[in-house]
Amino acid sequence: MRKLLFAACCVLALLLAHVGFCQTNARTEIAIPDIPGYMTLACDFHMHTVFSDGNVWPPIRPEEAWMEGLDAIAITDHIEYVPHKDDVKAEDFNRSFELAKEAAAERQILLIKGAEITRDMPPGHFNAIFLQDANALNKKEWKDSLKAAVDQGAFVFWNHPGWQQPGTIPIWYPEHTELFNSGWVRGMEIVNDHDYYPKAFQWCLDKNIAMIGNSDVHDPIQMAWDFQNGEHRPMTLVFASEKTEKAIKEALLAGRTAVYNGKYLLGREEYLKAIFDASVRIATSYRKEQELTVQVHNSSCITFELRAAGKVDNITFPGQLTLYAGKTVLAEIEAEEKQPLPEKILLPYAVKNLLVAPGKGLAVELTVTGDAARGR
Fold first, then answer.
1. What is the pLDDT, as a whole number, of residue 24?
2. pLDDT value at position 343?
């Protein structure tokens, strides 16, 4: 009976994998622009299948990723925790990768071999990706398991650092100092599933390591996020020289990442600024001596929420400005005291949902000139 119920759950997962999106076998592209010198790749480096504690068959993961617009994924089944072992033979920790790689190749999804090292806190859970052999991580001591990953040239990051902590607030233990100082761990999840860890965000900034955001999905992806109403899984944006595993690994080691979570982008200022600049275009649509109406177009899939971050002498401009995803909005600028408008106007704003540090929005200037302008 148990095996029958488990098989029924797998069939249900297969069915759910083909609903919840607008159309079966249709891909929704993620409209986040490339930045100068790099491609912007949407990635999810943390997910599970029936070969650990997940509830889907491995090929479902690349199918889901393709439909949602991702470029690269890693299936990271637990090494130490395999609750379905009575129903699914899980002696080979590479098996989920082998079963999923054809579906990934068919859809041009980069499937990166990975695994999750699952230990009590401290030090907690870690994902190792770009593995050669996941079986080598099956060690008694956590240090030996992590060393086996590092010896293969894996990129290792700390998973959900606030998980099972009081108030889900991460705690930094001496073990973490040892791991980061040794260079074994080069990244950290600042978003996992529906949890955001501001403290981990700041740690990534301070230690100059890669910021990671992942789904950690166990069930069919549509059971966790409502795609019909515009939701999406958290994902890591990797700024890579090309769409290859080698280039993604190089970018992760260099810390060239940002996290796309709900309506937010979280990352270093240089990368968020580059995305904003590539997304926003401004054109003057109507001008009188003291009044100016400009059209501001946002080509990205992210709605930018702007708040005035200062004043401009003798100029009145919107204190709040919402640049809707894929749309053009009008903004009114007016000179005070009947003075003519200057030929060039710099409007200071902070983008509230592009965070360059916990609680700190990206500073931008919208540059308006007499004929045409662009976000700067």
1. 62
2. 82
Residue 118 and residue 228 in one domain: yes
pLDDT for 241-259, tens place per residue?
Answer: 999 999 999 999 999 999 9
Range of the domain at 183: 2-262
Q: What is the mean pLDDT of the chain?
A: 91
What's the CATH code of the domain at 308? 2.60.40.3090
Both 149 and 236 in one domain: the answer is yes
- Name the token pair of 221: 């992806």
pLDDT tens track for 192-214: 999 999 999 999 999 999 999 99
Cα–Cα distance between 275 and 170 in angstroms, integer? 29
Q: What are phi and psi of 203, to 5 degrees?
A: -60, -40
Integer Cα distance of 284 and 107 in angstroms: 42
Contacts of 13 (CB under 8 A, 6+ apart): 55, 56, 57, 60, 219, 220
**Which tokens in the block code for residue 262?**
């709900």
Q: Which two tokens stand for residue 107?
A: 């859809």
Residue 207 lies in a domain: yes
Which pLDDT score, from 0 to 100, does residue 134 have?
Answer: 97
> Residue 300 corresponds to which amino acid?
S
- Residue 65 has, within 13 A of its CA and on its CB side, a CA count of 35
Distance CA 47, CA 264 (A): 21
Distance (Å, whole) CA 11 – CA 18: 12
CA dist 43 → 163, 238, 289, 307 (Å) = 22, 7, 49, 30
In this predicted model, which residue has the larger pLDDT, 121 or 288? 121
CA 351 – CA 303 distance, rounded (Å)? 10
Angle between helices 95-106 and 60-68 (to 10 degrees): 40
Give the end of a domain, one of 229, 262, 295.
262
Beta strands at 291-298 and 280-287: parallel, antiparallel or unpaired: antiparallel
**Phi and psi at residue 56, to the nearest 5°:** -135, 155
How long, in residues, is the chain? 376
Helices (H), the chain: 2-16, 60-68, 95-106, 142-151, 174-181, 198-207, 245-254, 269-279
SS3 57: coil
